[in-house]
Amino acid sequence: MLTKMDERKPLKQGLKKRRQPDEGGGGGEMKRKRGGETGQKPQGDGGKKRLDALSVGYFRRVGDRLTEGFDDDEEKEMFVTNVLTEVKGKAALVASDQTGSITLQRLLQLSSPEQVGEVLAELGGESGADFKTISCDRCGGHVVESAVRQMSRFSESSPEETNTREEEEGTFEALEAQVLCLSGVVRDNSAEFLGHVHGSHVVRTLLHVLAGCIGPPRTDARAVSVIDAAASAVFQTMLTVCHRKRPKLCKQLLKRIMEYLSSRSAAPGVSPLLVFLKDQASSRLIDTVIQLAHKSLLCGLYKKHLKGQLVDLALHPIANFPVQRLTAASAKYKLFQKLFDELLQGLEAILAAGHMGVIVQLAEGCAESEERQEELIQCLLHAFHCAEPGSRHVRCLPLFMSLLTYEVYYHSDAAEGSAQTEVPLSSICYHGSRLVQALAKFKDRSLLLSSLRTLTPADLLTLATDPAGSHVLQALITSSSDKGRGKILKRLEGQYVKMACSRLGSRVLEAVWNSSSVSQRQNIAQELVGCESQLRSDQFARHVWAKFALSHFAHRKAHWQEIQTGESKKRKLFSEILE
To answer: Residue limits of the PUM-HD domain (predicted)?
Structure first.
């Protein structure tokens, strides 16, 4: 199977000696592929020898056969023996190749002590000096580790296997001798081994084996990439692409990834997923898995691993992000109510930790599911200290937007009771804005609208021109009824020109205009048209002037009103069709 290497060094000046027909012992097989592809030749990294393409394909097929399994032990032993025969004489070359290394590791787990000993003997050479080179190789080190780990498998035989072990005592001693030889090489070259990224892992495995406390055999090395930082990003991309183009394959991948992460070792009684959720790379992969998961996977994830742990995870600086994804993904299922009950118990602690993304997603979930909305509102009122006395309810909007409690925002003590001092609107933050926008989607928005109507015109202007606050004002006005919108617009009178001349305010004004009735538009236009020169010369307001057709309003008011009425009817008809 494996063709012979051409051991000769290349001639100087790039000239190559003509190959004779009988050179290399490979004859016709070496010529089977164009350019000698089947011969092992130096490649890339410093002339390091690699397996040829034909051999790589062979070991890939061996790996596939191992995955399929065997009908009986006799078939398995025959297969392992045949493959190791092919490996004989080329063990170092096979171990140094990625595909060969992975396959050889799996073979060693099925091999007899004599066979493992023979592989180690070849890897180490006559004196064991080659152990250093192969142990410090990126792929070879894994093979050495796997071979050494087999000591624990043979030394922990069950009573039924004792007789067999006694018959193989001599072959076991051969394996033991190779492990001791490796130990001697490590001892003599300890500095090099301990300081090497791959060699140090061999030393750790060797220490475990010699101490008699080695764990179970190492799993397939390819799966470890799931928790690697760089590979995690690749898996995230792969899942996203498969979700769009190959949904069935995506479903299988999601299941396998969760099975792998759930199977890793952890403390007794603790789900391994709790560890991965707190890891930077793994948590991002789990984010993607949750985002794309189907109902049964989400329910199983909560029931088997996360039930009773959500508050602790929500308080963690990394794990709180997967909790947000889980809350968002479960909003359309009954699972959401279980998450809601659990997270609501720790709402104030989550707020104190500053993990507002969890609270925002909880509000978004209530809006989407149309469940538990009143409970969340009441809990937020208590958390921001504006539930009692009832007169504080109308002060909730500034508190929610700033994420400050009543006492902090209004600079008052609880002992002052309901006494309040007017404080200009300030400290509007991104997550506060997101929270109020989510609450604005609730069935009952009366509390927010009542609070909005208590703001002064100056505060409303501040809100309209703030990067975060402008979204809040737009959401509350556009989602109101005509009557409710009219009350808010009444308080905005006198501020329309300033809004039109603001980058953010002009966008809010346009959104308000699009949702307003004809009479409300007429009031806005009446105020704006009196400042024509200012508006037409401003970089933002000139667009408002054009979109609102204010020149038309100023000179042909009846015609303008007729056009606006027609647009209003079309908009109403279109919205009814969508509903």
So the answer is: 431-579
